[in-house]
Amino acid sequence: MRIGLLTEGGYPYVSGDARLWCDRLVRGLGQHEFDIYALSRSERQEDEGWIQLPPQVSRVRTAPLWTAEDDGVVYGRRARRRFADAYGELAAAVCGGPAATGGSGTAGGSAASDGVEADRFGNALYGLAELARDEGGLVGALRSEGAVRALERACRAPGALRTARTARVPDLLAVAAHIERALRPLSLDWYEDDGLDSVDLCHAAAGGAAALPGLLARHFSGVPLLVTEYGVQLRAHYLASASVGEPPAVRALLAAFHGRLAAEVYRAATLITPGNTHARRWQERCGADRAKLRTVYPGMEASRFAEVGESAEGSRCADPDTLVWVGRIEPAKDLISLLHSFAEIRKEEPKARLRIVGAPADGPEGATYLSHCRALAAQLFPDEAEGVHAVGDNPVSFEEIGGPEVPSLAEAYASGAVIVLSSVIEGFPISLVEAMFCGRATVSTDVGAVVEVIGGTGLVVPPRNPRALAEACVSLLRDPERRERLGAAGRARALELFTVEQNVAAFHGIYLEIVSHSPVRRVVVDDEGEPLPFGVPAEAHVPGRWAETRLMASGRPRWAAGAPVRATVPVPAGEGA
After folding, report:
1. Contact 395, 346 (CB under 8 A)
2. Coiled-coil segments, which residues (predicted)?
3. Is 523 in a helix, a strand, or coil?
4. pLDDT tens digits for 369-426?
5. d(CA 433, CA 436)
């Protein structure tokens, strides 16, 4: 089977999102052939290069999302009219309101009207893609004054979003620039001439821009689309826009655009694989058909934690008074509440210690938050000394993986009796799964997919509640037998649900299911250019190279498909003897 793997800002680049699970998936499915279609997010990411690719990757095609030079395409009168009509419809659908309504319609509207707007958005999107295929790239047109004027007309039209009506020229320019960036995949040459039209299945590693090439491959060539979201792109956009501080009109219009795009991706996808129930609920609210959803948990490498998890003493080998937090240091992790909680813990268990292991998030915000946490720790816990001649020591330490105290991630988890997660925002809690692989008891806040991952093998408390977090930690510090039972149960659950092997096996079955129900229709032609019955043997659908045949995608005129596939000339009876 030939898979077109679609990524944005990750695989096959050294850094970025979804890099690890994509690499594990490709390496785990060696019987299939993979073509990688990757969108990069920055010049730095491209300069860092690719990871080493396995032999089943037959081709890699990349394109930058972070920049786009004007393609120099000048449209004629008819093409300009086509663009104005398609972009005007797109703008009208966006300004009509968000699609993420869970099937109940927008405020003051109805589910039926929302469906009409969704069709309007999809038709406009494919109209722009067809224009780009027929006439050339869209970069110049999407940046033009005509695009901004179309947005302005849509914002002023009856029935437009109330917030959109307040948009001023700078707001419209910002929205037009964002839409141009998001729609850059429409101008790529990936959809013909042995591109995505020749694969058996498109697998998008995320929604949003990563899934756009899959939408067009389905539209132009009927290639089925599988969408995997371990972090819902629309949710990520909402969180990011809330922290940027954009004007209300810009925020509302971009939310509507991404909502419409998400709804179209979910509508067109053959199957959707969320990484957990939390993501699944988001997808359903954004318009995904429940019948298309199949939860596939992320696959994580359990072997790196095997030595700690399988040790004879289990959690008894750890320091019985030490709590460990592991993760990326940023405000969403709410280390402030953790430090206040630890102050309560120290009142009950004076020997308790807290190790915070992790690096600050990229950007100035992460470094600032780390400095704030260090200052709070110094204020809450002045250096303590056992005697007048002893050196003072703070019970809270900040460390990074690779340092002398924590040379590896597994040793970070092994150093504590209880692993703590204090987040207020969380998707799939990777650190919790790692702690479970290590056989450690956990105390977590009830956010994201935490309860689904823990499944009764750890303690869960409300977020932003330092007292509840402290009480749960103290109860486990005082009960080593309970810690050991919970740690063993957590390890068994993690090995059953969250390994690379289960992830690869799940996608292997999904690939076969999709291709069996949604085969890409291709025809083989003879010397005269006519369809050849039975030109593709049954073995051609079996993984491997039983009967390689050059196929022509259906839906295109045969005179525009390049050289036709030649039929095998039958050998007259007696000549082969």
Report:
1. yes
2. none
3. strand
4. 999 999 999 999 987 655 554 455 789 999 999 888 888 999 999 999 999 999 998 8
5. 5
One-letter identity of residue 208: G
Alpha-carbon span 333 to 482, nearest angstrom: 26
**Phi/psi at 232 (nearest 5 deg)?**
-70, 125
Q: What is the pLDDT of residue 522?
A: 63
pLDDT, one tens digit per residue, over 297-350 is: 999 999 999 999 887 455 555 789 999 999 999 999 999 999 999 999 999 999
Query: Hey, CA dihedral for 225, 231, 236, 238, is it positive or negative?
Result: positive
Residue 208: partners with Cβ closer than 8 Å, 6 or more residues away: 8, 182, 233, 234, 237, 258, 261, 262, 265
CA of residue 280 relative to chain centroid, distance: 13
* Cα-Cα-Cα-Cα dihedral sign, residues 550, 134, 178, 288: negative
How do 522-523 and 552-553 pair as beta strands?
Answer: antiparallel
Please, what is the Cα angle at 566 between 562 and 568, to 5 degrees?
170
Question: What's the whole-model pTM score?
Answer: 0.83
Alpha-helix residue ranges (DSSP H) falling in 32-168: 43-48, 77-95, 111-135, 139-142, 145-156
Determine if the peptide bond prior to 12 is cis (ω within 30°): yes
CA distance 308 to 313: 9
Q: Where does 381-465 have alpha helices with state H?
A: 409-414, 430-437, 450-454
Long-range contacts of 12-15 (CB under 8 A, 24+ apart): 12/36, 12/38, 12/50, 12/51, 12/53, 12/57, 12/60, 13/38, 13/40, 13/45, 13/46, 13/48, 13/49, 13/50, 13/51, 14/45, 14/48, 14/49, 14/50, 14/51, 15/45, 15/48
Both tokens of 170, joined, read 């700078």
